[in-house]
Structures are given as structure tokens and as C-alpha cells.
Design a protein that fits this description.
Helix content: 25-40%
Number of strands: 13
Mean pLDDT: 96
Distance between the termini: 13 Å
Structural class: alpha/beta
Order of helices and strands: EEEHHHHEEHEHEHEHEHEHEHEHE
Radius of gyration: 20 Å
Amino acid sequence: MKLERVEIVHIAIPLVTPFRTSFGTMTTKDTFLLHVVTDAAEGWSEFAGDPEPLYCSEHVAGAEIVLRDFLLPRVAALPVFDTAHLAPAMAKVKGHELAKAALETAVLDAELRSYGMPLATYLGAVRERVPAGVSVGIRRTLGELLDDVEGYLADGYVRIKLKIEPGWDLEPVRAVRERFGAELPLQVDANTAYTLADAEHLRRLDAFGLLLIEEPLDENNLYAHARLQQRITTPVCLDESLHNAADTASAIALDACRVVNVKPARVGGYLEARRVHDVAYAHGVPVWCGGMLETGIGRAANLALAALPGFTLPGDTSASGRYFAEDITEPFVLVDGHLPVPRGPGIGVEPVPEVLRRFTKERRDLYVT
């Protein structure tokens, strides 16, 4: 392939309800799509970060600069332009996994479209549909939380994840357990809101039979998570702390995590996400696919990844309607608690032109031959 143009499409889509976590509240999905045009096909991807560096150090404005000034010049200079050569070309730029993931995914989408191959096939998927869980944000009252959970279960979601933080943890979990029973697959996500000094408090969550507690302590602190796992029986799951397959292997060896959340953007793209899956799968550690409130562009690719054999727990691959009244692609709709894995070439979906225009704030070329 030959790279001809790279376009950035800045979008803002209102969420159906505000989504609150321990690090902030989102009311709009404000990010950008990356549109790569080659002489063989076109590809799309979605930047997973936010306008502010609160979930991680990357953010929308910074990622555009990194792509324009550092990643694209290296990629455009490649004598052979394809996915296999991207990672070595981008490796000298330290960090910026989300920006790298956006570029790699768009190029991979274009490359696979030129072959007529679905991303799911390329990654090694073994399922045609995947079970869908849902992430429930922090609410003002227990009543609002219980109403949310009841609605999602009525929609057919097969697993509930509760966002927690100090002061909103034991009581919400207890309320959900009492209302919906011990058989409900239930897990919690702290988004690094606690410290090791909270271990005895977190140990009280053991009574509720949770699938896991996700990233309870500071990210990148494998030692502290290993110490915590020694003091609680609820499996610790790592998210923000795992940046690649090597981190995953270290965390498993240290018993810092007994479950792995794979977010492709966080590890630099779907090729490294597959390596993370392979490491965990080889060690018998359950894997599930996390979410970043993606539009249909990001959701389609996540579903392809979540169809790999090691993904034995329902992920945050929720239906489009969980977050958006109108998605920028044809909507993903829940059927019997599952979402279908796209089978078209590449990621299998494209933006609906008139919808994309409605939610677009700005379009700019980052690279033109």
C-alpha cells in the first residue's frame, strides 16, 4: 500500500446519561476519528482518550500533535507501508500508546479491507458473538443505582460492573446484592481510587462474591497490588497498570492480578492486545475486554478482539444505546445478552456520512502526499 492522506475528524456526541467515575464525570464523548486513505483502501479508527488527561496522561489535543509531528513523519517515510512495519517505526517515540493505537488501527483497517479480510479473522476469533456486560457509573443515590441496574438487566446484560470510590463502595455493592441476588455476575472498578492502607476496608468486599475488583490502587504499582491480593480473596484485576504483554507477564508472575482487562488502546493497539491475551491465556488467567465509551468505530474492533478464546468473562462491549441516542455507525444492538462480531472486511463498519457530519466539530488533514 501507499499512504496518500491522513485526516482527523473531531467529534462530540452527547451521552444519554452522565457517566461518573472516581476521576470525573463525562456528559459527552469528545474525541477524534482517524481516517487513513491509501492507494488500496481506506481505514478508520477512534482515539480512545478524552479532552483532559484524567484517566491517563494522553488527551485529544496532545495526541493530535504526537500524530502529526512525530508518528506520521516516521510512518510516511517507510519504504514498505503496512501494519507489520508500523510498530518498529513508532517505537522510538516513547509512550503515547493511545495515539499509536489510533494510527495502527486505521492502517490495519485499510490493509484488511484491501484483502477483504475481517479483523476478527485476522486476530484469530473463535466466536461469532460475545456476551455483553455493562459499566454502571457512580450515582447520587442508591435508589438511582438500583433503577439503573434493574434497567440494564431488563435489557439483557449478563454482567454488571459498578464504579466505586471511597464512600461509595460497600453500601452500593450490598444494595445490588440484596436486590438482585447472589447469582448476578457482579464486579467493581475503583479506577485507582484507594491505597494499600485501605486493604482491610476493601477486604469487606469479599463477603459479596464479586468476580473481581479492578485497579483498586495506584497504576503501575504491581508490588502494592500483589500485597493487596495477599490480604483479600476477591480477585484483583489490572487495567491502567498493564501497558503491554511484558507488564502482563510481570503482574501474573508477582500475583498482582488474577484477571486481566485488555483495552487495546491502552496497550498500543490490537496487535499488542492480542499478545496480552496470549500471555494471560497461556497462564490460565481470565481475560475480558474493557471499554472507553467507544462509538461504533471503536466498539466494532473491540468485539473482534473479545471473540478470541481467552476472553472468558463478559466485557464492557455494551450496545450503542448504552451511551448514545444515535451512534455514528449503524447501531450495535443487544440480542439475548450478546453482540455480534462484525464480519465485513477490516473492522466491519464505517461512519454513516450524514450522522458523522452532524457530530463533527472540525476536520483537518494531518498528512497529504
